[in-house]
Structures are given as C-alpha cells and as structure tokens.
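thread: overnight batch results

M.L. [08:02]
morning all. the overnight job finished for the chain we discussed friday. pasting input first so we're all looking at the same thing
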Amino acid sequence: MGKQNRARRAAKARARQSARRDADARQARSSRAAGPTGGPEPFATDDRSRRSEPQRATDALLSAAHAQVGSSRRIRASEDLLSMSAPVVDRAAEELALTGVSAAWGGGWQPNELARHLRLRGCSAATGRLGRTAIAADHAGRSSSTLDSRWAAQVQAMELPDGVRARGWIRRWSDEERIDRSATLDTVVDLLGILVALRRIEQLLPPPGSAADPSRSGRTDGTGGPTGTSPSEGTELDPLLEKIRNLLAKAESTTFEAEATALTAKAQELMTRHAVDAAALHAGDDTDGELAPVAIRIPIDAPYTDAKSLLLQTVALASRCRSVHDPDLDLSTVVGFPDDVAVVEVLFTSLLVQAQTALTDAARHAPPGTRTRSQSYRSAFLLSYTHRIGDRLEEINQHVIDQATIDHGGSFLPVLRSRSDRVEDHMRAMFTTMTSKPVRGGYDRAGWASGQLAADRAAINLADLEQADPTTTGSPRPVKELT
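M.L. [08:03]
and the structure it wrote out:
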C-alpha cells in the first residue's frame, strides 16, 4: 500500500473517531437536558442509582407520555417500566392520570368532552375505557357539594364504572379487561400521552372545587351530548322546550314525510314566536339588557363533520344564535340567549337524525347506477339538505315576524337586533381568532337532489335528478372555524 493511500486511510479513521466523540458528547448533553417535568431527563445514567423507584417510575411514565407513539424513546421507557414493581408503577401512573384529569377540568374540559376525546384519540378502545375509569376515580374523592349541579348531572348521566376509588383502579381495570402487563402499560402510557397534550378550551361550567354561582344555574340534556350553560330545569322555558322536544321526537319517529315536515315546522314556529313575544314584552324598557348570552358545546362526530357543523351553524343562525366549529377537536360552540340555545340543541339533534333516516331511505330508492354509498353522494346530500333546511327555517321565521309586526307594530324589532348584537359581541369576545371557509363537496347531482327533496319531504323522480345541479342551485354558507 502506498504512502498516500495509508495517509488517506489514517485521515478517514481519525475523522470517524472524531465523529463518534461528537456524537457521544451530543448524547451526553441530551441526557442532561430538561425533561417533561423541567428536571433531568429520566433516562440519564449519571444519577439513576440515586433515584427511588417511585421517582424512576414517574420519570419513565412522563418520558413515555411525551414521546411519539412507536418511537424508540417510548419503547425504551416501556421496557424500563416493565422491569419495575407493578404496584409502584401503577401508583405513579394513577397520580399522574388524576393530576392530568384535574388539570383538564381547570382547562375548560367537561366530563363528557374528556371521555369522548380520550375515546377518539386513543390508540385503541381500551384507552377510552381506562379514561372513563380515571374520571370515575377523580370524582370518587370529591364531595358533591364541590360540584356545580350541571356538572354533577352530567357525570351521573355518563354511567361511569361503579365502585372506583382513588387508588388501585388501574389494577382493577386491568383485571376486568383481562389483559397482560405489557398491554396494560401501553394503554396507561397512551392515556397519559393524550392528557399531557390537552390544550385549554373555553370554560363554560365551573370546574370541581370552584364556587358555583347560583344565578348561573343551567341544565344538561342527560344524554351525554351537548354541554355548557343552557337553561335550568326550573325556568319558565321548560314547558315550551318540552313541547318542542315532543314535536321533534314525533318528527323523528313518524314514517309519514308530510307529518315530519309539519311537526318540524311547528317546533321552529313555536320557538320563533316565543322569542318575538319575549322581545315585545321588553320593548321600550331596559330589563332585557339584564339578560346575558350563554354558550354550550356540541360534539360533531365523523364522518362529514364539515357538513354537520354547517347544519348546526344554519340552525343556530335561524334560532338567533351563532356557532363556531373547532376542527381539531370536532366540537362546535353555540352562543346565544338561554331559550334559543336550548332549542338549537334539540332542533339540530332532531334534524341530524331525520337527515340520516332520509339518507338511508334515499339510498334504498335511488335509481339504478346511483352510488349512494359514495362519499361524494353523501356529502352532497348533507350539504343540499342543510341548504334547503336553512331556506325553510328562514321562511318560517319571516312568516312569524310578519304576523307579529301586524300584532305588535314592530316594537319588538329593536330588541331582537340588540340581542343579535350582544350575541355577536359575546362570541367575538370568546373567540378572538375565527375564519370562514367553504365546505368541500356537494358536486354529486344525485346526492344534491336527494338532499333537497329530503329536506322538503317531497317525492323523488328521475326528472328531479336530471335537472338538479348543485353549481346553480346555490351553495351553503361557509362554516365558521377557529384558527
């Protein structure tokens, strides 16, 4: 071998050694870097022997929770956890989980919302079940006197696991699930990972332990659905709201299209008339200014969350409310006066049920060759349905207002405008960054025609399909979203 070759090989060897030394130095610095809790990285080897096993378990759990799913960091942490005492790890995990759940309450989350989020974001259904157990464990140590009545009603309606205590609930859950230690730890780490990544959302209910204001009493629907500050069970709205609920329930259950149309229209007319009468009552005085807008959150479940949130926005606008959709969490917030917000909730839910029923029926009777199960068909159906529902609700509102103008001389109109302005101001104060975006879809002619006809509860024929064109019929309003 020539001198030049030997020199080149020696230079390459020195370069490799230098690169290895640099890599080792970077690794050492990384090991000393701050970890998730602000302290040393849990897997630094310099002080490992000096940490107690509970502390090592806590550090390993936090490191795994902050690591990406399937990453080498999470795998190493899980292996370390498997080598530790199971009771020690479980106790550390329970403390971290309960801390995370409590932090979620302070961050605006409510029990229904947190349970739903854990179920949707978990790597498996087991994460959602463990999350419900964690919520039950959190409330096991809380006195009912520290809970807002709406919060307590929501928890009761969730039917959380019975007999859960603040300690030992992970072992109990694992035994009930009949899974091994490795699967248990994977689920625990998945739960903690979701909890540490939670962001703050708007606080609509007083969290546990806070002083609830009795004047802000509200209600939940008891179904595990919308949450927030809607009218209380003791208000004068309840008889009217119950009547509207009954009308919409009949509309959902009837097999006669004309009857469903009449019942839904009657429900909207009742609520609009109630709002107009209330405005007329306060015309010329200042007592209406004492009322304040409230807010609730409504979950929008996949698929077609854009179209469903647009339907909610359409119903909210027709009911003198506003709504904004959070696409990251698939939650929509509805802002309005208590009476109106309560009706938005029940009317949206009913129309969604009717839309699903109509979609199934349209698919059953569609002409041959229609791809009724395709995404484009169903998206177009829902968007067209929303567009036509919006028209019908506006027609009903205008009819009621025209009749009330004859009866009251228009004295109520300034009150309605004032309320609308206050709702808009309240929403903009809650959400400082909003944007409007068009909803994609709606280009399937058969789906668009079926959606319109379903909203009208009219018979469908081939001529309607051939004449329907979503590009000329009109398009729904853009949906408002958080940015």
